[in-house]
Amino acid sequence: MYLGTDPALPSVYDTALLGLLWSALTGWLQGVALVGVDGPGGGVPRRCTPRWPGGGWTLSAAS
Question: Given CA atoms 15, 55, 46, 34 in this order, what sign does their dihedral have?
Answer without folding.
Answer: negative
